[in-house]
Write a structure and sequence with these properties.
The structure is a single chain. This protein has 320 residues and is of the alpha/beta class. The protein folds into 2 domains: 151 residues, Alpha-Beta Complex (Quinone Oxidoreductase, Chain A, domain 1); 141 residues, Rossmann fold. Helix content is 30%, strand content 28%. It has 10 helices and 15 strands. The strands form 3 sheets. Strands 3, 4, 5, 6, 7, 14 and 15 form a 7-stranded mixed β-sheet that branches. It has a 6-stranded parallel β-sheet with strand order 10-9-8-11-12-13, with helices on both faces. The longest helix is centred in the C-terminal third of the chain and has 17 residues.
Length: 320
């Protein structure tokens, strides 16, 4: 099979297409023939050697994908050859034509969802769900601000929050992004490049502030997030690209909580809950992953550059 292989940590150019042996499923494993592959920012940090947990070299990157079951291993009984599925993790890496997975990393893909949409689920939607419902413990009726809402995690969060009965505010940095987030569930959309946008958000809430902030770029926004947070509010840090200085008094005076979230900390029990909810949302049309760009597998380096550029619009997927 064809697969992206990384022999050394470095820039996007270290990713090379190679021909490698087809994986063989062992007991409790499932081999999936991928039709689409999700690209996530975390994979760029891992490739560059900047992530705390580094894979052994050489390796094939990626966790998210969608396709059809090629072959289940002994004792793997949930799926049959030809079943449409998506993955939320792999054993062999998803930037390839075939991916070897534990059975619990494979989930049914409803017929109404495309393979590209299935490849957009694993990291973005599970991250958004865990941040909103399991970390922030948001409840219907609260006001949620999704900071940087036009990317893969952001659009997932908008759809989940709107379906969950929240007042939803989203930010983006382009006119196209603002249009997208309005279409995907935001009651109110603000351009985070405008100097006074946070003041406008605070005024929109009648001076009460927002209850929950889902933060994609904490190194830029966290200090200011605390200024627009309601008493008892929670900020969930989903993404950050550096350090930030904050005034702890803002957290003190508002009884605020700053919460982190990482997919690596998701328990098996949480994964079952999350993917049951995501599957139901796909089935009834509540969840509609937005695909911003499709590229061939051989252009994985270009995809890694694009996923880190500002002005994100939906999900980038690779087609093997």
């Amino acid at each position: 099979m064809k697969a992206i292989r990384i022999e050394e940590f470095g820039g996007p150019e270290v990713m090379k297409v190679e021909t490698v042996p087809d994986p063989k499923p062992g007991p409790g494993q499932v081999l999936v023939r991928l039709k689409a592959i999700g690209v996530n920012p975390v994979e760029t940090y891992i490739r560059a050697g900047l992530y705390p947990r580094k894979p052994a070299l050489p390796y094939t990157p990626g966790a998210d994908g969608a396709g059809v079951v090629e072959r289940p291993g002994q004792g793997a009984f949930k799926f049959q050859p030809g079943d449409r599925v998506y993955t939320s993790g792999t054993l062999s890496g998803s930037y390839a034509e075939l991916a070897l997975c534990d059975e619990n990393q494979v989930h049914p893909l409803p017929a109404k969802a495309s393979f590209a949409q299935g490849a957009a689920l694993g990291v973005p939607y599970a991250t958004a769900y865990r941040a909103l419902f399991l970390r922030a413990r948001a409840v219907p009726g609260e006001c949620v601000l999704v900071h940087g809402a036009s990317g893969g995690v952001g659009t997932a969060a908008l759809q989940l929050a709107r379906a969950g009965g929240f007042t939803v505010i989203g930010t983006a940095g382009t006119d196209e992004g603002l249009k997208l987030i309005s279409e995907e569930g935001a009651h109110h959309a603000f351009n985070h490049r405008e100097p006074a946008y946070l003041k406008a958000i605070f005024e929109l809430t009648g001076g009460r502030g927002v209850n929950v902030i889902l933060e994609m770029l904490a190194n830029v926004n966290l200090g200011k997030d605390l200024e627009v947070l309601a008493t008892g509010g929670r900020v969930v840090v989903i993404g950050s690209r550096g350090t930030v200085e904050i005034d702890p008094r803002l957290a003190m005076t508002k009884d605020a909580a700053i919460l982190g979230t990482s997919q690596g900390n998701m328990t098996a029990e949480q994964a079952v809950l999350i993917h049951a909810a995501l599957g139901a949302g796909l089935e009834d049309g509540t969840l509609r992953p937005i695909i911003g760009k499709e590229l061939p597998l051989a252009q994985a380096a270009q995809a890694h550059k694009a996923v880190m550029e500002p002005g994100a619009r939906g999900k980038i997927v690779l087609i093997p």
